[in-house]
Amino acid sequence: MLIDINERIAFLRKALGKCAVGNDGVNISFYCPVCNNDKMKLVVKVDDGRWHCWVCGTKGGSVVSLLRKFSQASLPEWKKRFEAVEERTFIDEPVEKKEEVKVPDGFIMLAEYWGSDPDANAVLNYLRSRDVTESDMWRFRLGTSLTGRNRRRVIIPSFDSSGKINFWTSRTVDKDTQPRYLNPKADRREIVFNELDIDWNQELMVCEGPFDVIRADGNTTCLLGSTLTKNHALFAKITSNRTPVILALDDDAESKQHKIAKLLYEHDISVRILDTGDAKDVGEMNREEIRQARKDARPWSLNNRLQFLISTISSGSMF
Predict the structure, then answer these.
(1) CATH level 3 topology of 189-319
(2) Can you point out the beta strands (E) in the chain?
(3) Percentage, residues of the chain above pLDDT 70
(4) What distance in Å separates the CA atoms of residue 187 and residue 170, rounded to the nearest whole number?
(5) Is it true that domain 5-85 has CATH number 3.90.580?
(6) pLDDT in tens, 24-48
(7) Predicted confidence (pLDDT) per residue in 158-177, tens digit
(8) In what helix (H) or strand (E) does residue 292 lie, and over which residues does it extend?
C-alpha cells in the first residue's frame, strides 16, 4: 500500500522547514541550506525521492540522502514510517558521479605564446582573421593544445563563479576537419558559461555560442545552443537575481527566441531583443555594430510574440 503523498510532504515540511508545493502536487521546493539562496530552489520530487538545487547544483537520488545531509534526526522516523511499507523502497542510491571537467591536455594560453609551432600559429592566424585581439585572448583565456585531438583548434574555456573550469569548447581552424567543435561530456543545462565574468546586477546579453560572447564583449554569456528552460542553471540565476536580459540569438532561431523571451517575461524578467540586421549572428557583426545594436535593442512584450505567430500562419510553422 502506497503512503499518501500529502503525508510525505507534511513530514518533509516538518523536517526541513517552509516549502512550496508545485501544481502537480509532487514537486516541492525548499530553501537550500547549501547556497542559502533567498528563493526556494531546492526541489524534491516526493514520489521518487530525487532532489536538486537549481542554483548551487547539490543533488541526490533519495529522501534518505536528503535527510542524512540536512536533517539526520528525522531519518529514523522517515525510514520507519515510509520505506518499510512502500511498494518502491527508498534506498540511499548513490548519485552518479559526474566526470570532472579538466583543461584539455597540452593546453597553452595563446596570449603568451611566442613559439614556432605551426599548428599553434595557425590558430593565432585564424583568430586574427576573426578580429580577435590579444586583449580578447587574455580576457577570455583563449588557448590551444600542442598535443592530441585539440591541435589546430581554438580552445575557449568556461569558469564557474569560484573560478573552477566547468566547460570548454574547441573549434577547428580547418574547413575540412570534422567535427567542427569538440566539448567535454557535461550537462549543458547545469552550466552558466563563464559565470566568473558575469555581473548579475547589470543587464545581461545572452547569445548562442562562445564566439558570440567574445565578439559581443561586455556583460555577456551564451546558451551553448539555442534553448533555455526552467531546468537550466542560467534560468535559475537570472530569475533569482532579477537580471534584465538582452536576447541576441541567431537569425534562424527567431521562434526559439520568442519562446525564451516569453518564459523570462512570465517570470517578471525585463527582456529586450537585439537586431542583428543583415548579419546571420552576433559573430558576424563588428564591435561598433554590436554596441549600437545593444543600445537600440527593443523591449519584448507578448504583443511581439503575437505578431510573430500571425506572420507564421501562412507557412504552418506556428508553435
Answers:
(1) Dna Topoisomerase Vi A Subunit; Chain: A, domain 2 (3.40.1360)
(2) 19-21, 27-30, 42-45, 51-53, 59-60, 107-109, 143-145, 153-159, 165-172, 181-182, 204-207, 220-222, 245-247, 271-273, 298-299
(3) 88
(4) 17
(5) yes
(6) 778 899 998 887 777 888 999 887 7
(7) 999 999 999 999 999 999 99
(8) helix 287-296
